[in-house]
Amino acid sequence: MGSEPRIEEMAEEFKVLGDKTRLRILSLLEGRELCVCDLTEVLGISQPGVSQHMRRLRQAGFVHERRGGQWIYYSLTMGNPLLDLLMPTFPMVEEDEERLARAKGCPT
């Protein structure tokens, strides 16, 4: 009986991870911090769409947000047991990395 809340929490975490776009975001965030504007350019989806994905990732405890002026920057949550387990197996999405290298970044 005592493990039921944890089972529900785990089920929600796996639902969040069951989305290809969110997996691409986690891959992009490995080892770096990115702004929503970077992610919109790389993923080719709208700012509200990226923000919705980031909200789900943040609620599940996978990402941390930091405000810098008018921008919000995201990074992976350090010490998340599920991320610690999964990230070493995450494939790099070469097309996303190439688009990120060409991205203009957030205006300052």
From TrEMBL:
Keywords: DNA-binding, Transcription, Transcription regulation. InterPro entries: ArsR-like_HTH, HTH_ArsR_DNA-bd_dom, HTH_MetalResp_TranReg, WH-like_DNA-bd_sf, WH_DNA-bd_sf. GO terms for molecular function: DNA binding; DNA-binding transcription factor activity. It holds the Pfam family HTH_5. CDD domains: HTH_ARSR. Residues 2-97 form the HTH arsR-type domain. PROSITE patterns: HTH_ARSR_2. This is Arsenical resistance operon repressor. It comes from Desulfosporosinus metallidurans.
